[in-house]
Design goal:
six-stranded antiparallel β-barrel; 2 domains; 2 helices; 188 residues; 11 strands; alpha+beta
Length: 188
């Protein structure tokens, strides 16, 4: 009986050893296969909630940016993303708001000094004129805002529509690139 138990014990040890070796040698992945399985998820280096940033020139505040969330990404081309929207106010020398921008999403490229606003973008100026579009790029270096998609501008007496826009950053001097139509508003 002792001899039979010894044989069964040896058979179990050999079976376990062969199973382990079989599993070890049957699982093989090449480096390329492993890289294919990797998820290309990029996480922010810093994430800030309820952010308010004031930009100044020569000690004077010229712009204020507010966002519910601001994610900062470092790397070769660093950027800041505002995935839950943005509200930007531009001020004159007396701290009066000359224009405002709101959007449901924005991304600011650090090196190029450009901010791209998307999804329900609204810009207003001190004359009460309002721009509606789905995509807008603000270039801090040139002081211009541009769009290459449908735009609608509502003034006190007109609604002007078209494709594409070039404007100064406070939206006081603008041009629609391909106007589609003008609707006059009768105030009577």
């Amino acid at each position: 009986m002792k001899h039979e138990l010894h044989i069964i014990k040896n058979i179990l040890i050999v079976a376990i050893l062969l199973s382990t070796l079989g599993m070890f040698f049957s699982c093989e992945n090449s480096v390329a296969e492993i890289k294919e399985l990797q998820i290309d998820t990029i996480y922010p280096n810093q994430s800030v909630k309820d952010v308010e940033i004031q930009y100044s020139e020569l000690g004077r505040v010229v712009l204020q940016l507010n966002a519910p969330i601001l994610n900062q990404y470092d790397g070769k081309e660093p950027y800041e993303e505002m995935p839950e929207g943005v509200h930007v106010r531009i001020f004159d020398s007396l701290m009066n708001v000359t224009s405002e921008l709101t959007a449901n999403y924005a991304i600011k490229m650090t090196h190029s000094e450009k901010m791209e606003a998307k999804y329900d973008v609204v810009v207003t100026n001190e004359k009460g004129e309002k721009l509606n579009t789905e995509h807008l790029v603000w270039d801090k270096t040139t002081g211009e805002i541009t769009s290459d998609v449908f735009v609608k501008i509502t003034t006190l007496d007109q609604v002007i529509m078209g494709d594409g826009l070039i404007s100064n950053q406070d939206f006081s001097d603008y041009r629609i690139l391909k106007p589609r139509g003008i609707i006059n508003i009768d105030n009577d």
